[in-house]
Amino acid sequence: MLSILPMKTWKIAILAASILSGCLFSSADNVKNPINYSINQETLVNEAFQNVSQDHLSSVITKLSSYANRSAYTQLGIDSFDWIVDHWKELTKNRTDVEITRFTHTLYKQPTIILTIKGSDPVLQNEIIILSAHGDTINNDTNDVNAVAPGADDNASGVATISEILRRLVELDYKPQRTIQFIVYAAEEPTSDRASYELTRWYRQNNKNVVGVMNYDQTNYKTGPYDIVLIGDYTSVEQNAFIGNLIDTYLKVPWTTQNCGYQCSDHAAWNIEGYPASLAFESYLEGENPNIHTHKDTFHTMNNSTEHSVLFVKLGLAFAIELDK
Ligand SMILES: [Zn+2]
User: What is the mean pLDDT of the chain?
Assistant: First the structure.
């Protein structure tokens, strides 16, 4: 995530689209259980909300920000991603329907990590729901890729958020009908040659049927009047409306929509390939965490608390469960 351009509010347009769109079919020939944006899984979603672990969120943020950096250009950027793979293996060690792969990139040695929970339904398993976050860091005070860049908020918080969503789904012994993937992108910070563009091109070229992407890039720094900001550009209007409804139904916290004005994170790569993607952001863009992209982006400068990220864990659980039904 980078700095921002002027704000624009799209909430009214999104609500109108929500009313008009109703049920959205992921593919015309799949009548078995079409993707729709209705909300009716309250019992299961509320059960999933129990026992969201701030200790787990803290431990992932603390561990990842303990690397001097996670740059896409350094060995630490590879070592820290290896830790994520090991951690996810440990979280899912008792599952036989989980696979973890590294997607290799042309421009970077840092791989993108993909954990797949294979859908249990023989037809619906071809439809993929994605929860994602980038794992690399940058220090913009210097051109030195070895500079200290702990990236606790940007974006250890996003990686921690999807790790806790994974941990809760496993704890619930949740067996999805559709395939659910958890992705940690390599190299988001080099904005001109992001790794995610290569990744999403592969999904398109291989005819992967991605039915929804929830991307997180900074979830733990709260400021300003809104707890959650949905980015309005390079995202899906219909899916954003669905997510707004999820917030109103399950979280009941203030939210709004703002535009970045440019392709400000990895959601854009999915959007460009025609897949429905959204970015749920931690704060009003004008109040963005001033410490990102510096050596000061630490857990300490977020008061050693993961309270704000809990909202994004819950939102992701609701998103996955309601899309999978
Ligand atoms: Zn970021």
Answer: 92
Q: What is the pLDDT of residue 33?
A: 75
CATH number at residue 247: 3.40.630.10
- Please give the single-letter amino acid code of residue 9: T
pTM of the model: 0.91
Please check whether residue 2 lies inside any domain of the structure.
no
Half-sphere exposure of 286 (CA within 13 A, CB side): 9
Say how many Å lie between the CA of residue 249 and the centre of ligand 1: 28
Q: Is residue 6 part of a domain?
A: no
The DSSP secondary-structure symbol of 111 reads P
Give the tens place of pLDDT for each residue, 107-156: 999 999 999 999 999 999 999 999 999 999 999 998 899 999 999 999 99
- Rounded distance between C-alpha atoms, residue 292 and residue 149, angstroms: 9
Listed in sequence order, the residues at least 6 apart from 240 whose beta carbon sits closer than 8 Å to its beta carbon are 14, 230, 232, 257, 278
Ligand 1 center from residue 228 Cα (angstroms): 16
- In angstroms, rounded to a whole number, what is the distance separating the alpha carbons of residues 294 and 289? 11
24-80 pLDDT, tens digit each: 444 444 456 778 899 999 999 999 999 999 999 999 999 999 999 999 999 999 999
Return the active site residues.
134, 154, 188-189, 217, 293
Expressed in percent and rounded to 5, the helix, strand and coil fractions of the chain are 40, 15, 45
Q: Which domain holds residue 167?
A: 11-324
**Ligand 1 center from residue 258 Cα (angstroms):** 17
| Ligand 1 centre distance from Cα of residue 247 (Å) | 22
Cα distance between residue 91 and residue 177, in whole Å:
20
